[in-house]
Each structure stands twice: as structure tokens, then as C-alpha cells.
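Hi! If you just cloned this repository, the fastest way to understand the data is to look at a raw example. We've pasted two of them here, unedited. The first protein comes first, obviously.
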Amino acid sequence: MLPGDDVFAQADAHDQIVATLYQRVSPSVLHITSRAQAFSPFYGVVPREGTGSGFAYDDQGHIVTNNHVVANANEVSVVLAEGTTLDAGVVGTDPYYDLAVLRVDLPPNGLTPLELRDSANLLVGQSVVAIGNPFGLDRTLTTGVISALGRQIQTEQGGVIGEAIQTDAAINPGNSG
């Protein structure tokens, strides 16, 4: 569905805004795969693979994702919106905020950086859209509202993510980042 299609023209104003936002933003959403070697007492060293989402931060090859997506990874790769796979290096991580910055060598067509805004101006009740790559599939979109601001979330590993934005939008495994 693209602006100008008959289906698009029949959608209500809110749906048109969400559809247009998806078309504009989704090229910035990237698929991240991390690979590591884990030790099993029964099998010895076994490969481990994880996936998540990320977004192009700038036109210099920097990508933002979650720390838990790339933690302890030996290799990281990024799949761009059009399907190109690139090797990525981890530039830095922040486990407290569950953030990681990656860097890739720029592809011929470059990256489409996501336009960022100031989160200090958010309000509980505002609409929110989450675009990601759950389960390693192509980009998906979920919607909801901001339920709370400044939350601290306990992770499965016992850590804490601070200053989180709570939403009721569905965030599936692999959609984080």
C-alpha cells in the first residue's frame, strides 16, 4: 500500500498517517544477527545465534541496537532493508540502558538514517509505533500508546534497564533494537 493507491485513499486519517510513517521509516530499520560460541557441559563448544532489530543512526555506517542483541557475540551481521548483508563491528555498548552501537562499511547506496526526536517531550497517552524484525522476518509494524515514562525494567539476566518508555505496542522476540 503506497500513498496514492485506492486502498490508501480509503483509509481514515490516522491509518494514513501510520501507513505513511511506515513507508518513510522502514528503510532505516535493519535486521541484526549475532553469532557466538557457547560452552555446554554435554556438547562442548556449540554455536549460538541471536537476532534483533536496529536502525541506521547516521550516514557514516553507525547502527543502534540493543546490547542484549550483540552481547558476547564473536560475529555480527546486518541486513539492510533491500536485503544486502554486511559484517558489522561493535563500537560500544551500554548494558544499563541496553544499548549498543555497531558500524558497517557503507554499502553503495548508503544508509537511510532514522530521524530522531527529543524524548523529553513525550506524554503518556501519545500514540506510538514500533517497527522491527521479529523472529528474523521482514519488517513489521505494531501500534499502541505510551503507557508510562521513566520505567526501570528488570531483565531476565538480572540487570536493570533504566529510563524506559513503557508501551502497550506488541514487542515480539527479535523486535527489540
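Ok, and the second one:
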Amino acid sequence: MSPTAITAPRLRDLHVSVVDVETTGFNATNDRIIEIAVVRFAPGGTVDDVFSTLVNSQCDPGATHIHGITADDLVDAPMFGDVADAIVERLQGTVLVAHNASFDRGFIDAELARTGRRVPDIKQVCTLAAARKYLPNQSHKLGFLCEQFNIDLNNAHAADADAIATGHLLYELLSLAEQKGLGTIANHASFDQLVPTANLAQAVTKQRHALTT
């Protein structure tokens, strides 16, 4: 077994930051974040910090019938630049987790870029992708999965409620992965996959090759 494999961390033993955003639409280039939550989980799966705020995007909030946020709600909210440092600080040194990570990460990247900042170089895990892998042939919507695992989601589409529920879902899905001998996290990729320790060195080599070609 290679030294890389021996020292590879288990995801369960790492700090994770679960993120959720509510937005004005689906295109990170043109649409904006109007609510964001970053919920940090300590190793083992206990919540140790919750950051959540509305964001004044200075534009129409979009689908109020879905996220429940109106233009009046945003009048006194901070702009994204006012909270960007707090967000980056909470992501630093953690694994970013989201249900549909490409969506949430894409919006956060775009908003940080507008302020001249960037998301720290961190790993990320998508619970939606994990659910599709370990629970095929069923709905993978967050609400359905929470019902399946008896996870409280009392205020769906509120960013903090969705993020906390997603964090608990992560550990339920991780338990399924661990039953298959998986659970360590590969080094540096857009979407890290949980892999067997014995295969980790090969996975890292392939990823580094992809990054340099």
C-alpha cells in the first residue's frame, strides 16, 4: 500500500462546510444569490457553526413562490461583498458539501469573483451525486431523501434549513459508502469521489495528470 493511501483522510474525520444558496434563477453568470448558508460540521457529524444571511442582490428576487423571499425582505440585507470574507473564512480548511454542488459552488464562485475573491482550494462532495450512486431508481430530491432517513427538514428552501439537512444526509450516505469499503477522499478534483484506500494513489495520479494536460 502506498504512503498516499496510508495517510489518506476519511471524510468522516474531516471538518465539512455544507452550503446552500437561494438564487434569482439558474444561471450563475447572470443570476444572483439572495440567501446563503454555510453550516460547519465537526468530525463525526455534529454542527459546530451556522452562518446564514439574506443577500441584497439589487435585482428582482425571482421565484418568490419557491424560496419565499421578497424584494422587501432584501432591502436591509447586506450585499454579497459585505459577507464574502465571512464565507471564505468558514470554507477554508474544510470540505465543501452541497446537494447539487455544481449549482451552489458555481454561484458562490461567481459571487466571490465579482468581489475579487475566490473560493479556497478545497475538496468538495455532492450529496446529490452520492444519492444517485448509492440509492438508484428513486427520487433524489432533498425532501424525499430526508423523509427516507428521518431527517428533519421543517423549512424547505430556507438556506440554513436545507444546509443542515444536507449535512445530516451526508453522513447517512457516507454510512452506505463505508459499508462498501469506501470512505476516504481523493486529493484535489472538481468532484471528489469516495474511493477505497487501496485505490487512492491511482486515483490521485489520474487526477494530477488531468490537471496538467
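That's it. A detail worth noticing about the second one: The beta strands are 16-23, 33-42, 46-54, 95-98, 124-126, 184-185, 194-195.
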